[in-house]
Amino acid sequence: MDNKPSDKKQGGPRWHSCLHNNNMSKTWAPVYLSLSLQVSQSPSAVSLMKVNSSAEILCSTSLPDPTGLYLMGRFHDNRDVLYLSIADRAVGKITIHNGFRGRVTVQPDQDQEVKRCCEFTLRLSQLGVEDTDSYYCSWRYYDTKRKVLVQRHSNGTIIIVRERDPEKGCGGGQTIMELILIVLSWTAFIVIFFLFIGALMWRCTRTKKHYTPARDNRRHHHHHHQHVCPQHRPTADPQFIHPSSSPGHVDFKGIL
């Protein structure tokens, strides 16, 4: 007799387990979503802050009658910053971690009594580079259905602290750029000035080169008659010269 279980029997529990897990995931999904919507935190990030500056974190919840509020740092092994005990929606005892003592203040909402529940503003002051972290709020309340204490975490606020003031760094870069622009402007002005002077001189030289003064014809004619070379002086026509041998004889050939 074959005692090997059938495929149907083997597949039965597997399908039942899959269906059970699927139903459980569908059941827990809206529960997790509703719990995540019951706690909130703002802002999501505070970046580019200078040393000794301050930051504010707003923690709020709609959970009924929470018993306490934690502020924790996620990047430093979930270090505790403070614990705030709450009784009847009022602030009770405040416990602050040694590293933040004297640097954390708590301010409750003024209209907290008329709201469904709680909202607190936590102010962190005198922040240093070592305080760079992701700070998240963790609410503690008593679950009456399960009879246990439950904690619900918010997403968190990332605070980045730098050693130098980014505004001063940008201002220094802006000052350098302004100096560079001033130097370039003066250089361009000097170049344009010398180009203008060179063009003006070239124009004056060209005009002087093509200019020809008018001559005085009368003065030239006068000097021509005054300074006549001896070899160019006019001589008498030989036809009109009287022979020296016979001064009393007149030759009329040339006249006739």
Automatic annotation (TrEMBL):
Annotated Basic residues bias: 214-227
Q: Which residues cross the membrane?
A: 179-202
Q: Which GO terms describe its biological process?
A: adaptive immune response
Which molecular function term from Gene Ontology is one that the record holds? Answer: signaling receptor activity
Keywords of the record, alphabetical order, are: Membrane, Transmembrane, Transmembrane helix
InterPro entries documented for this protein: CD7, Ig-like_dom_sf, Ig-like_fold
> Region Disordered: start and end of each range?
214-256
Q: Which GO terms describe its cellular component?
A: membrane
Q: Which PANTHER family match?
A: CD7 (PTHR15343), T-CELL ANTIGEN CD7 (PTHR15343:SF0)
Instruction: Report what the protein is called.
Output: Uncharacterized protein LOC120029916 isoform X1
Q: Which organism is it from?
A: Salvelinus namaycush (Lake trout)
Which gene produces this protein?
A: LOC120029916
